Each structure stands twice: as C-alpha cells, then as structure tokens.
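Fold this: TolC family protein
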Amino acid sequence: MDIKPYRLAEPIFMVALVAAPTLVNAAGNETHAAQNLTSSERASTTKLAQLINVALSNDGNRKQYSAQSAAMRETGVASSTLMDPKLKVGFGGLPVDSFKFDEDPMTNISVGLMQQFERGSTLDLQQKKANQQADGLGLQVNARELEVANSMTQLWLELGYQQRAEQIMLENRKLMKEMENFIQTNYSIGKSEAQDLLNAQLQVSKLDEKLQANAQMQRRLISQLSEWLGSDWLANEQALHASNQLNWNTLNNKLASSIDYKADQSVIAAEVWLTGDITMLMADFGMITLNHLPVAEWSWDAGEMSFSVGEEVDLSGFEEGQKVRFLVEKQGADYVLKQLEAVEG
C-alpha cells in the first residue's frame, strides 16, 4: 500500500482551518470580556467615589468635628495673644459743690495705661495646647471620613453582589421555566411523569422565593445607603446599578510597598570572627546582657546556643578564631557589628 503523507496532512489542515476562526473568536470574546470588566470596574469605582463625596458632605459628625477643630484652633490664637491694654482716667480732690478743676489746688487728674503680661511661656504653651487639641479633632475628622468610606464601600459591594445574584437567578428561572414547559409538553403526550412536572414547578417556585428575598435585601441596602446620602438622593435616584468589582490598584500598590519594606527588614545572617582581644574582653565581662537589641531571637553556630533578648549569656567559653553567626534582623545585625567594633577599638 502506497502511503501519501500529503493526503494524511490534508484532513488535519482542513480541521485546523475550520477550528482557527473558532479559537480566534473565543480569544476575542475573552479579551472583550476582560475589557468590559475593566471598564465596569472603573465606572463602579467612579460612581462609588461620587457617592462617598456626597455622604461626606451630608455627614453631621464630620461637620461637627471639623467645626470643633477650627474653633479650637481659633481659641488657641486668641489665648496666645496679650490681653487688651486698659486706659485709666481719674481725678481726685474735686469740689463737689462747684465741680471746678481750678478752684482747689488739691484737685488732680490722673491718666494711666495698663497692660497685663503672662508669666514665662504661658501664651506659647496655651497656643501649642490648643493646636494639639485641634490636630486631635482633625484626626477624628479623618477617622470619620475613613469610617464613612468603609461603610459606603461595604454597602456598595453588597448591593452589587445582590444585583449580580438577581441576574443569575433570573437566568436560571428562565431556563427552569423552559424546562417546565418542555416537561409539560412531554407530560401531555405521555412521555413524562407528573412527578417530573411537579419538581420543575417546585424549582421555579423556589427561585421566585429567592428573587423576593433578594429584592428585599436590595431595598434594605438602598435604605442604608440613603442614611448616608440623604432622603433627597433616595427620591431622585431612579435606578442604581452597583457592582461587586472595584479598582484596587491603590490598595495593591500600598500592599506591595509594605511587603517590600518587610522584605528589607527580613532576617539575615551576620558572621563575625572573634579575635583574641574581643574574646578576652568578653571573658572579663563574664555575663553579657542584650537588652536594647531590636531582635526577637538569636542563634549561635559555635556551641549551638540560642537565646532571646534580655537574657544573660556566658560568652567566656568562646575561643579565639571561632566564628559567631548571628541570625538577626537587619537592624539588629548592624547594631551588633557596631558594638563589636566599639569593643575592639
């Protein structure tokens, strides 16, 4: 039998040509869906930011803290200034029968100016105290803003989840309704049993109950949002389309920077050769106390010793030329090296 490779490759090539458009369309659909998801996340984040700004502008506690902070700062300015000078005008020896100033030589007129000064740095300290109290109230304002933003974000994501769940349940109900109609048709011609039809109708009824519970949950979440946004927003808002997806780029960047910082402070090893002088000095000291080192735990290869900060350790047993390996944090290693250099010097 004469085998021709080009005839074997021809069907494979034809299958590849037929499947290629399908694969391209699938990849295009995935890319399009990813783009739609990204745009939806951006729109949801923008809408949420707008709602948070409205909630902050309507929040009474935030306004109260802000007004108290401004008032406390103004009070500090007032308390740091000198009191107003007092002008004193008086007269004495004035005859009461004529009230003439030139009749009696004992008549005199006195004019004085009085200014009160506080002791030491009282005024500066009072202003500093008021400014610190105002800064504390300002921190309460920031904390309140974060609290409002957190509550709004949680309600927004929960509402988006409920709306997405409603869409899925509506699709499932549509499919179950079609299944019910199909079973009913088969039942009418004797191809299905009554139990199958009852089960399909029961599933549709369960989905209706879940949809009602979902609608109640959405109304409850919208009412909770109206507590932050005001009754006017609830009256003017026709349809609110929330989302359970947000753009977390800022949070991811902060987490990444935090992880990088922790990596810089990770545990490293510092190896130091003990010379005779260092060993002698350590032996003279006898017991060394490590109280101020910013490390949680130490490990010594020589002698297989390990101890924690604050413990007293006898280092006189280490001989000249032994290599001590510190398993410490980066800051702790730098501190140990400086201390050893100081002892050697």
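Residues 1-27, 263-315, 318-333 have pLDDT under 50 and may be disordered. Residues 122-188 form the longest helix (67 residues).
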